[in-house]
Structure formats: structure tokens, C-alpha cells
Design brief:
This protein has about 375 residues and is of the alpha+beta class. Helices cover about 60% and strands about 10% of the residues. The chain is built from 10 helices and 5 strands, in the order ααααααααβαββαββ. Strand 2 (about 315-320) and strand 3 (about 325-335) form a beta hairpin. Helix 4 (about 80-95) packs antiparallel against helix 5 (about 100-120). It is rod-shaped, with a radius of gyration of 44 Å. The chain starts with 8 loop residues before the first helix and ends in a 6-residue tail after the last strand. The mean pLDDT is about 80.
Amino acid sequence: MSSFRFPRPATLLTDVLAVAIVILLAFLPYPDAVFQARGLLLVPALLPAALMPFRRRLPVVVLAVSLGCSTVTALFGVLSPGVMIAIAVAAFAVTDRVARPVGLLLVGAASILVFFTNAMTLDGEVFDSRALQFLLFIVLAGAVGDATRSRREYAAAMRERAERAERGREEEARRRVAEERVRIARDLHDIVAHQIAVISLNAGVASSAIEARPERAREALTAIRAAARTVLTDIGGLMSVLRDGDTDAPCDRHPPVGLDGVDDLVAQVEAAGLRVDLRRDAELGALAGSSDHVAYLAIREGLTNAHKHGEGDRAALAIRGGDGVVDIVVTNAVGEESPDATPSGHGLRGLRERVAAVRGRVVVLRDQDEFRLHVAIPTAGDDA
């Protein structure tokens, strides 16, 4: 059940004003008798006044009735100014409320009808100024109504565009937050995972060698202490970055390491108990700074996984250059009885994202008892 809503003060005021003008023009004393409606002609002269409050909801009906009233008065030789003003008000409502082609067509047809009926009232004087002034009012009212409708549609389009832009900014902000979370998680993995793996592996070495080879156990414990100190320092750096709100800064405080740090990485891994067969081409293509760091991370991820998930204590690392790419291949043995030995966690997922960011590719293969990580990264000359 629809509830009645009292008109707004501005709407009510314009309705009262329109009704008052039509009634006033019907009763004003005119020096020219052609403008004065008397007797029963006051009915068609005043009827449009009663329709003025409905011109917004029923503009076409109000225009049609007003035209009918003007035709009736014209047949009796009266050119009622009140009816003409009512037609002009209705013409404004039609072009303001109805679709533009329909509104312009209706106002054009109304203007033609008024033109000929007024000429009939004035004994065929088609261009009599007394008739043309009312015709001008009708055409002008229709043009103003069309301009009002266009301005309202333009304002609505601007609001919609602004809302769409605001939604776009919100979606962009959510996307950036999601990307930032992934980046922080990836950097946290880079900081923690390798050192935790070193700690775990050295803890195993220390526990197995503490009685038979105490000096080897002491070396393992020293490595554990260094790795723990490193990871605590790096996590502290990450926390300070997040507290400062500078999430665009790198999460660790160390400069990014490239392929020139491979020898130190291999020595660290071998100290943890994994022997690495390193084969490296003497001439490698030049890698950009970010690509060089990603190549180092790929080697570290591959060797860490080989130590954690591999079978035995050996792994092969090959670094080759050619055809515009640097190929990195890490191979290690896996046990057939351990189908879950193929790593597939967050480390490789993050590695794939990093390699894809420098237009590289990652291929992971397991062939019977061998696991292979193959990373191809374009050189600087092929990165454009």
C-alpha cells in the first residue's frame, strides 16, 4: 500500500504559482476582446489551471487537454492567454519528463496546432503578432524543458561516473592490499624459511654427532646460533618496517644478493651436510638487478628443498647461459617410498611468482627417483 507524500515546499509553490497565473490571465480585463473569455468559455479557459499540479506525472495528458481547450476557445473566436500559458507550462513538462525525441515531436506538433488555431481565431492572420507571441512562449518553454532534462541527465551521468571511479579506487585499494599481503608473506618466507631449514638440519647433525664427533656437533651448534641470530635480526627488521608503515621498503635490511653470492650459499649448505656438485659456465648473460636476485633465490630454494626433502646428501647445481636466458637446474635424488618428497608448498609458489615477475619460467619435474627444478630467466639484453 503506497503512502501519500506531501509535496515539497518548492514543488507546492510552483504548482500554486502556475494555477494562479492561468486563472489570473483568464479574468484580466483586456482591451482587445479577442483575449477575453466569457460565459461558458470560462470552463475551457480555466480547466488547464486544475491540471497544472499533475503536469509532472502526466505531462502528455496535460498538454493534450490544454491543446483541446485552446482549440475549443479558438472555435468561438477567443484567444485565451491563460490557456496559452498552460500549454507553454505543459510543453516544458513534456520535454523535461519525456524521452527527448518524443518530447520534441509533441512540442513541435503542439506548436503547429496552436499556430493554425490562432490564425483561425484572428481571421486568417497567420503572422499576427498577437498569436506569434504565444507561439514563441510555447517553443521557448519546450527548449528550456529540454535543456533542464539534459542538465539533469548530465548531472546524473557525472554522479554515476564519480561513483564508478570511487568503486574503482576501492577495488584498486583492495587489490593493492592483497598484493602487499602476498609480497610480505613472500619476503617473510625468504627471510625465515632458509634459516629455519639450516637450523633444523644442523640440529639433526648435532644430535647424531654429539657423542661420536663432538667437534662436528660444536660446528653444527655454531651454525644454529648464527642462523638463529640472522633470522631474529631479519624478523626484527621486518617488524620495524611494518610498524613504520613503509611497506614499500624491503622487508630485510640486507642488500639483495645475486649470482655472485652462490659460492657462499653453497658453502653454507655444505656446512649443513649437503654436498653440492656445482657446474657453472664461465660466461653468463648479464642479468638485471631484480633478475639477478631472483636467480639467487631460485638456487637457494632449490638447494634448501634438496636438503629438506631429498634422499642422500648430494645435489647437483648447474648454471648455464645462452640463447638470451640463464638456466638454473637443481637436481637431487628422492626416495620412491616417499611420494610426498616433491616440494609443493609456499616456497615454490612464491618462487614461481618472483620468476614470472621477471618474465622467466619455472619447471618442476620428478622422474622416478630424481627431482629437478629448472628455472629460466631472461638476460638483461632480452628483457626489454
